[in-house]
Amino acid sequence: MELEDLVQPEGVVAHLKVTSKKQALQELSERAAKITGLSERAIFETLLERERLGSTGVGQGIAIPHGKLPEINRLYGLFARLATPIDFESVDDQPVDLIFLLLAPETAGADHLKALARISRLLRNSSVVEKLRASEDASALFAILTEPAATNAA
């Protein structure tokens, strides 16, 4: 699975201005609704439900909120670089400035896990993360996320 199969250019946000985890999830749910055609509320509630199980803030300033929805038939990803880092209740208690949102069909067991693993590997690559933090526009972020060297190293 390649990241360009998950993320489209319109799903990348360069300067998301939010002040809390809840607001970040709301903003990303709104953007995801436009891309998927699903209800913003359904997406937001699914993400909140997952966060109640434990934070998806994985450390190093990165969060990977995710959820499964019965109404979609493929995986969708959105990426946001925050204008200001926020508290995401991360495992390392560090604020988050990079968020990769993943939405999957309810039936996508293995594919969902493979996509999470791919995203996680990519965002553990320190040179990719440095480039993402240094980029100022959405098209540059999209290029970094989908460049073959980054996804192969992932």
In short, what is this structure?
The protein is of the alpha/beta class. Helix content is 45%, strand content 26%.
Reported for the largest beta sheet, the result is: 6 strands, mixed
CATH architecture: 3-Layer(aba) Sandwich
CATH homologous superfamily descriptor: Mannitol-specific EII, Chain A
Q: Mean of the pLDDT scores?
A: 93
Question: What kind of assembly state do the chains in view correspond to?
Answer: single chain
| Shape, per Cα inertia axes | globular
Q: Could you give the distance between the termini?
A: 11 Å
Extended strand count: 6
Structural class: alpha/beta
Model regions low in confidence, pLDDT < 50 over at least 5 residues: 150-154
As for the CATH topology, it is Mannitol-specific EII, Chain A
Order of helices and strands: EHHEEEEEHHHH
| Percent strand | 25-35%
Please bin the fraction of helical residues: 40-55%
CATH class: Alpha Beta
Question: Tags for this entry?
Answer:
single chain, 154 residues, alpha/beta, Mannitol-specific EII, Chain A, 6-stranded mixed β-sheet, 6 strands, 45% helix, 26% strand, disordered C terminus
Walkthrough of the structure:
With 154 residues, the chain is of the alpha/beta class. Helices cover 45% and strands 26% of the residues. It has a single domain (3-153), classed as Mannitol-specific EII, Chain A (3-Layer(aba) Sandwich). It has helices at residues 21-36, 40-53, 109-124, 126-134, 138-146, 148-153, and strands spanning 7-16, 57-59, 62-63, 66-69, 76-86, 96-105. Strands 1, 2, 3, 4, 5 and 6 form a 6-stranded mixed β-sheet that branches. Mean pLDDT is 93; it is low at 150-154.
